[in-house]
Amino acid sequence: MVSICSSVPKIRAFNRQRNTNLMLSSNCVHSLPQRPQIPQLPVSSPRFRASKLTGKSLFAPALSFLVSETHSRFSTKKLKISCFRHEESSPDLPNSESAGELLHEPEKSEINTPTVEKRSWGTRLKEAVDALFQVIGKPWTVPWTAETILQVTLLWILSFWFVGSWLIPFGAHIVGFSKESLTFRGQALFSLLTDVTEGLAGILILHRCLSRFRPLPSDWFKFSLKGNWMFDVLLGCFMFPLVNRLSQFNLDLLPVLPSTPITLSSVEQSIMARDPIAMSLYALVLVVCAPLWEEIVFRGFLLPSLTKYMPVWSSILLSSVAFALAHFNVQRMLPLIFLGVVMGVTYSRSRNLLPSMLLHSLWNGFVFLDLMK
């Protein structure tokens, strides 16, 4: 009995120790299933307790690992979000609206393509017209007004009429000569004197009316052998057959009336008489004197002056009409207008009176040689 009773406290102590170990092992297994089992330690050891094992020794590394893992995942996700936002806000990449505009841009360009082509054709046509007008030259710098232009023109018409119809015949009458009684040579000399006086009167009117505007620009009344104007003169000579055709067309359009008596001019009479001196004097009038003063008046003054109020091509045409009217011959209006246009273009391109004078002289020589046939 004593031995059994004395062993009871030992059995109870053993059972308590066994239950305590079972509790500790169960807690470790449930809290950390992936961790290796920790060796069993005696309960009596003061270094290891349940709170120490669960709070510091076992849970601290696991919690620190989980916190670092979670922090790294959140930081990575935040980095991705921040980078994605940075890419969206980057000016190099288009947003949704600009992307839509880029998608629709080919359609807009296709729609606007005919308009662009239409504008380009219109622009090309305008450039071609401008280039064509630039070929005939640019306007002059005109220091005077329309009043001076009108004054010079009227004075020249009056002087031309006065000298040819009154001054020279009156002078010949005083000397004791009559034009009808003169020989072929006398008539040729009379024609030369009249033409020279008319030219000098026109040049004197220009000098008097334009003297207050001096010094004139360098491209006014210019005579020069320099420049590439020989090609224009040669091209103008190729127009002579066309001028001759226009003369025949003008005669067919406005024929001479049958009631009008057919009279031969003094030039034609001297040619028919084959008087060499008379023919030489008429050739001097037609080839030298008339081209000189007519080009000074019509191309040297009138054409450039008109460019102040109208385009160059209009000035060429209007001065050519005035040139044709000054010859007082309706049956020769069309060829003289065309000839005036050719000489006007030549002068406006070269800004030199010598090419237009040479072209005028060649045309008169061509007519004179045609009459000698």
Task: Give the key terms.
373 residues, mainly alpha, disordered N terminus, CAAX prenyl protease 2/Lysostaphin resistance protein A-like domain-containing protein, transmembrane helix, Rce1/LyrA-like_dom, endopeptidase activity
Could you explain how this protein is built, in words?
The protein has 373 residues and is mainly α. Helix content is 75%, strand content 0%. It is built from twelve helices and no strands. The longest helix has 40 residues, at 96-135.
Characterize this entry briefly.
This protein is mainly alpha-helical and 373 residues long.
What's the helix-strand series? HHHHHHHHHHHH
Quick one: overall form?
Answer: globular
Sheet having the most strands: none
Number of strands: 0
* Count of separate DSSP helical elements: 12
Strand content: under 5%
Q: Tell me the radius of gyration.
A: 58 Å
**End-to-end separation:** 185 Å
Structural class: mainly alpha
Helicity, as a percent range: over 70%
Low-confidence stretches: 1-7, 22-33, 41-59, 76-111, 113-117
In terms of quaternary structure, the protein is single chain
Please tell me the overall pLDDT: 74
